[in-house]
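Researcher: Here's a chain I'd like modeled. Treat it as a single chain, no partners, no ligands.
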Amino acid sequence: MLANDTRNQHFLTKVEQKLNAMNPQADERNLRIYSFKIVDRENYTIALESHTGRLIGSNLSLFDLFSFDVPGGSSLRLNFESLFHKYEAHIEAHTKSLLAKLNARSTDIKVEIIDLFAAKMLNFVRNPFSVVKVLNSFPGIASYDPTDPALLSDYRRIVSGRKPHQAYLCAQLGINDRSILNGCACCSCC
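Model: Modeled as a single isolated chain. Structure tokens:
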């Protein structure tokens, strides 16, 4: 279930980016979104990167970001893409439904709110630029191990799997054991 050939792994779903596309009627592979660079983080200053936008297919993604075991000699890798799909699959439908219900002044929005909240929480947790914030939000999580034998086996594979991309990704993201408070036993970047 965790094995597939997906290398380009989005930390903000393509579905959500599509909902904000600058050309929503375009073919899926040509969808574009505006992207901004941070000019001054302290003063919240940003600048538009390009007036033509950026292709969603390669925006807010990194190769093998969520791959925790990449065996040699095969295009398959173990990652969390299929698990993420459970939360991503209904984002578009729930977003459109929520907007329609709010427009109709309906208060029956519990299902949409709960599912969208779960998807947004997943976005927060899997954002590679928020590692320190995530660890600060869930202190102590690294000291727990799964008690279910199957999950424990998966966990051990996550910790000890072959990650030839790890050093490169950590360098790209500026993640190391000094940049993360209280260590980083729960991710593979240290």
